[in-house]
Design brief:
heterodimer, A: Rossmann fold, 2 domains, 6-stranded antiparallel β-sheet, 10 helices, B: mainly alpha, 76% helix, 1% strand, flat, binds adenosine-5'-diphosphate, binds magnesium ion
Chain lengths: 382, 299
């Protein structure tokens, strides 16, 4: 099922009674979600993700705009007639019902020609339970299950009606780190095996990047960018998106363009056709190549070995943050090791020495270097 | 061991207090109830046995009090609880003037019983000048006047139950309103996505979620109604036997201090019979509520 939003807008009266200006939770959403895709709706807390999901689901009525499922205009339809399944942030399993009763509950609401027999209900519930692998827990109460199991039950309950669209609101935020990893794979698996168009909301960029076919990055009710996770990561439209995606986060510098060159402090790190004046520069951690001849001279703080890669923590006068984090892949790490060896100190010891006056020089990968307008944050051509 | 001793030491003040004011009187009442022909003035007795119980159970005044108490309990507890549930449910659904309604419904709770009794007098009592407001209304619709305070038993019982329900409802509304507000709204959202009807949402989600509170109200309601007395006095005066509206607690009181009083043994026996009844009913209530919680009650 393809989902199309046209100029979808939702305003709330401000909760703070003293402020009369409305809160625009969702501002002029226009996009199309292709059939059978897993889409991550991504943004910081309070940016209107849940509101957007509630609009698609039908729990909230839009102030303006239209929603289409395929070619059906569902804007005015109540949730139950839209054919959506929703998984809520805290699962919202009915605490007094067993897993079986929870899963069957939506089926018992079916009316008219959709009505099905008890046996069919049992069968559908069992199918849904098998899909999320909780068929052994059918007689348990929600309070007798772990968060991950409750999550699966919630998904089974959402899927049992065979919805056209599955909506998940922060499905992983209540799980601990390990469960989060496995559960997100699980969601991906369920989505792939059912082929159901799925929209899931998260404030965790890693989560969205790892399993989505498409991500939608939003900020304060406004869509910033839509695209394949890798594309958005590699080609952010503005500083917000660039900062929001990626771990470790992008390194931001106050820079200036002068005489066709891009200067970080005194270091001319690249040629540029951008207009003269101050600009903001973002460099991804993997955009630094250690090179004794490199143009960017940073003060070395420490080196952290993380498995195959090593991470160099340094600082620069033009940096917005206190430290610059760069990830050096094993292939290039020789230079850093050599640098450390130069000082005839074993790397181990260097790691521990908190700070000294050594300088590390980097060359910058042009593809990992982004220019932004300092005022608007919009991307500029390099 | 030492820890335990310490624990008991901390409990000691409370234990002494409970012993002096709860356990000792209870035992004393039990002893009184078993002393036959006890004379309060001379502190003498004729024997020990169940004679007092036999007397009380054969006393027509006690039988009448027992009957009245049961009628009040059986009518007022279910009615007041379900009415309170209905009112708090609708209160929870409106936003307009909700605060105002909540205050109004709560007023009887902070009003003195006797003042409420006075209001009911104006509503129901016949005087030289008027038949009471309710009768004025009845007359308006073409029905003859009914004497609610000194008339037929059914009329008096109606006023009695009306009054009791009116007095106990505010507290129940208060409890149920907060119970309803404490149900996680996300359950209702989930139910709406699944197209659940309002009735089904109420019976399958709301009720189970607030069932512990309902059981609490039913149990305390039973206990309270069995102990009814002051409300009867407020409506019918102190001579409840003459009015035929006595209750068990009223009977106990009369046996102790009433005009025909001075019989602590009969009073003690009647009090223990009441205790046995309340105890049994509460046990049944608890059994039912635990069972319910096991099947479908809130976790
Ligand atoms: N029912 C409501 N009434 C008023 N304001 C609301 C309501 N729901 C959400 N908002 C506001 O809309 C904004 C977006 O909220 P929400 O969609 O919950 O954000 P998110 O899910 O991204 O954290 C917030 O500023 C929030 O305060
Ligand atoms: Mg949210």
């Amino acid at each position: 099922m393809k989902v199309t939003l046209e100029h979808l807008t939702k305003r709330f009266p401000n909760r703070n009674k003293k402020i009369h200006e409305d809160v625009v939770a969702v501002n002029d959403f226009t996009f199309e979600i292709p059939d059978g895709k897993l889409v991550g709706l991504l943004g910081p807390s309070g940016c209107g993700k849940s509101t957007a999901l509630n609009l698609i689901c039908g729990l909230e009525k839009p102030t303006e705009g239209k929603i289409f499922f395929d070619t059906d205009d569902v804007t005015e339809l109540p949730p139950e007639r839209r054919g959506v399944g929703m998984v809520f942030q805290n699962y919202a399993l009915y605490p007094h019902m067993t897993v079986r009763q929870n899963i069957i509950f939506p089926l018992q609401n079916l009316k008219g020609k959709d009505k099905i027999t008890k046996e069919q209900m049992e069968e559908r519930a069992m199918t849904a339970a098998k899909l999320v692998q909780i068929e052994a827990l059918m007689e348990r109460k929600p309070s007798e299950m772990s968060g991950g199991q409750q999550q699966r039950v919630a998904i089974a309950r959402a899927l049992v009606k065979l919805p056209r669209i599955l909506l998940l609101d922060e499905p992983l935020s209540n799980l601990d780190a390990r469960l989060r990893l496995s559960t997100r794979e699980e969601i991906r698996r369920i989505q792939t095996s059912t082929g159901i168009t799925t929209i899931f909301v998260t404030h965790d960029q890693e989560e969205a990047m790892s399993i989505s076919d498409l991500i939608i990055v939003m900020k304060e009710g406004v869509i910033q960018q839509i695209g394949k996770p890798q594309d958005v990561y590699e080609d952010p439209v503005n500083l917000f998106v660039a900062k929001f995606l990626g771990t470790p986060p992008i390194n931001v510098f106050h820079a200036r363009v002068a005489g066709g060159g891009l200067y970080l402090g005194e270091d001319r790190i690249a040629d540029t056709k951008a207009p003269e004046g101050p600009v903001t520069v973002g460099i991804r951690p993997e955009g630094f190549i250690p090179d004794p001849e490199g143009p960017l001279a940073c003060k070395l703080h420490r080196v952290e070995v993380m498995g195959r890669d090593i991470s160099v923590v340094s600082s620069h006068e033009a940096s917005e943050n206190a430290v610059i984090r760069s990830i050096i892949s094993s292939a290039e790490s020789e230079v850093v090791r050599a640098l450390l060896a130069d000082d005839s100190k074993p790397p181990k010891a260097a790691e521990e020495s908190a700070s000294d006056d050594r300088i590390v020089r980097f060359k910058i990968r042009p593809a990992k270097l982004y220019l932004f307008d300092t005022e608007t944050g919009n991307r500029l051509e390099l | 061991m030492k820890q335990q001793a310490k624990g008991w030491l901390y409990l000691l003040p409370a234990l002494i207090f409970l012993g002096v004011f709860m356990v000792y009187p209870l035992i004393d009442v039990l002893i009184y109830s078993l002393e036959e022909g006890y004379n309060f003035a001379s502190q003498t007795r004729q024997g020990v046995g169940l004679g007092n119980y036999a007397y009380v159970l054969r006393d027509p005044y006690f039988i009448s009090a027992l009957k009245n108490t049961f009628v009040i309990v059986i009518i007022t507890v279910p009615l007041s609880t379900s009415l309170a549930l209905l009112i708090s449910y609708f209160l929870s659904r409106i936003t307009f003037l909700r605060q105002a309604f909540q205050t109004i419904y709560f007023l009887p709770y902070v009003t003195n019983t006797l003042a409420v009794g006075l209001v009911f007098m104006i509503l129901f009592k016949k005087t030289a000048y008027t038949d009471g407001m309710v009768n004025v209304l009845l007359n308006f619709f073409g029905s003859p006047s009914i004497d609610f305070i000194e008339g037929p038993y059914a009329a008096k019982m109606f006023v009695m139950c009306f009054y009791t329900i009116w007095v106990v409802m505010p507290y129940k509304i208060l409890i149920l309103t907060s119970a309803l507000a404490s149900v996680n709204p996300v359950y209702y959202k989930a139910a709406r996505v699944d197209g659940t009807s309002s009735l089904r949402i109420f019976t399958r989600i709301t009720l189970p979620c607030i069932s512990p509170m309902i059981f609490y109200l039913v149990i305390t309601g039973f206990i309270g109604a069995f102990k009814a007395y002051s409300d009867e006095v407020a409506l019918f005066g102190t001579d409840l036997n003459a009015a035929g509206m006595n209750t068990i607690v009223g009977y106990v009181y009369d046996m102790l201090y009433g005009e025909g009083g001075g019989y602590p043994s009969y009073a003690a026996a009647a009090a223990l019979i009441l205790f046995a009844i309340v105890f049994t009913i509460t046990c049944i209530n608890l059994l039912v509520s635990n069972n319910k919680a096991g099947i479908g009650g809130a976790a």
